[in-house]
Design goal:
407 residues; alpha+beta; 6-stranded mixed beta sheet
């Protein structure tokens, strides 16, 4: 026997139920193959579905502010799934921590200590999420939430390092959360700093915990040391790479399109720049606007690329124009053009190619520069659905630069 989403929703109409489609599940599973062990891989899969399913839902609600990835940065979040359960997003000025579980028992919310006692991880609200991932009929159920102060004052379990709160202490209706944020906003959480680690201790912890294992190393050392290590983005990244090897995270194109201060900081950290910083006196002219609506938000980002051929090195600019519609859909149009402060002249090297490759590895579209080409771009923009992946490739002869994105 199985139950459809519509039938189980009648069990409790206060809860928020979101259906997960097979395409999103397939994309999520492809995304998490690089984790170091089966447990971390499955944890990342569950959290990816929970996070992106919720973001997609909330961005479709006209009365709610858009949700953006946070952690405090987008790049850190996938790395955290190697070590512990949970995700964090920003909705307006508040941070929500999502705690997914596949358990059929929804009597207790269990929050890993990392989300409560690492100062830059804590949230304003903690959401309990039941995940039903069996067969092809999958959904998630938001069955309660609590404030940071409630979680921090809950029962602490020292052996497994988590805080728990019984269902009776939670608010069940998500409507209470949306209204409460505006009517009775909680004060920002006050969290004690963790002890500082000296360089020798950090090096020792990285060596000790960086060896790949079939389980998370989160319980191997005292929490004060573990929390200080994981709470430092640089140390967390090094620990992650020691366990999984080289890894380049996908760049979230819809998040970049929001052009918040945090999104700009993250794209710059990934080696991209704002268009006006590279071409302050120039504009991109495609001969038309990608969309006709005046309410569309437009932004442009640039990646300067060096392509070293046997005869010489060329520098070109990969420009991505993003136009975000009010319904959340983001249109994407990449372009290549020469970088004017080089001695390469005003033209692209003949034969340079710009390709977009879909998540099946197939070339979706390709354009090639002819002689004396001042720039190339696709004939039409394209749109990446949430959860889907695509790759942009710039190739000249045997040399290529490749950048992977997700919708």
């Amino acid at each position: 026997m199985y139950y459809t989403l519509s039938s189980v929703m009648t069990v409790n109409t206060k809860h928020l139920w979101i259906e997960l489609n097979p395409e999103t599940q397939a994309a999520a599973w492809r995304r998490v193959q690089h984790y170091s062990n089966d447990a971390s891989r499955w944890n990342a899969y569950v959290n990816y579905l929970c996070l992106h399913g919720f973001i997609e839902w909330i961005n479709q609600q006209p009365d709610l502010p858009d949700a953006g990835l946070t952690f405090p940065t987008e790049g850190e979040l996938p790395r955290s799934w190697e070590f512990t359960n949970g995700s964090s997003i920003a909705v307006g000025e508040h941070r929500l921590v999502l705690i997914p579980s596949e358990s059929t028992d929804i009597e207790t919310l269990c929050v890993p200590q990392e989300w409560v006692d690492i100062p830059n991880w804590v949230g304003d609200y903690y959401l309990a999420v039941q995940m039903k991932l069996e067969d092809d009929r999958c959904w998630m159920r938001f069955w309660g939430f609590a404030t940071y102060n409630q979680i921090q004052q809950g029962e602490y379990h020292s052996i497994q390092r988590y805080y728990s709160l019984n269902r009776e202490a939670l608010w069940e209706s998500m409507n209470v959360l949306w209204v409460g944020r505006e009517v009775c906003p909680e004060g920002k959480p006050q969290v004690s700093d963790l002890p500082e680690l000296n360089r020798d201790r950090v090096r020792h912890l990285l060596e000790q915990l960086g060896e790949p294992t079939s389980y998370s190393p989160r319980l191997e050392v005292p929490f004060a040391q573990w929390g200080a290590l994981l709470g430092n983005p640089e140390w967390q990244n090094e620990l992650f790479l020691r366990r999984v090897g080289e890894w380049q995270p996908l760049l979230n194109i819809n998040y970049w399109a929001q052009m918040t201060a945090q999104a700009i900081a993250e794209l710059q950290a990934a080696g991209w720049q704002l268009y006006e910083d590279i071409f302050p006196n120039n504009s991109v002219n495609y001969g038309w606007r990608l969309m006709t609506s005046e309410s569309v938000e437009e932004s442009r980002v640039v990646k300067r690329i060096e392509l070293a051929t046997p005869s010489r090195t060329y520098e070109v600019a990969l420009i991505i124009t993003l136009e975000k519609e009010p319904n959340g859909m983001t249109w994407i149009l990449p372009q290549l053009r020469p970088v004017s402060d080089r001695d390469d002249g005003d033209y692209l090297p003949e034969g340079i190619q710009l390709m977009v490759i879909d998540d099946e590895g197939e070339i979706f579209e390709r354009v090639i520069a002819s002689e004396e080409s001042e720039g190339i771009h696709f004939a039409e923009p394209f749109c990446a659905e949430p959860g889907t992946q695509f790759t942009l490739e710039v190739a000249l002869g045997e040399v290529a630069a490749i950048y992977s994105f997700e919708g």
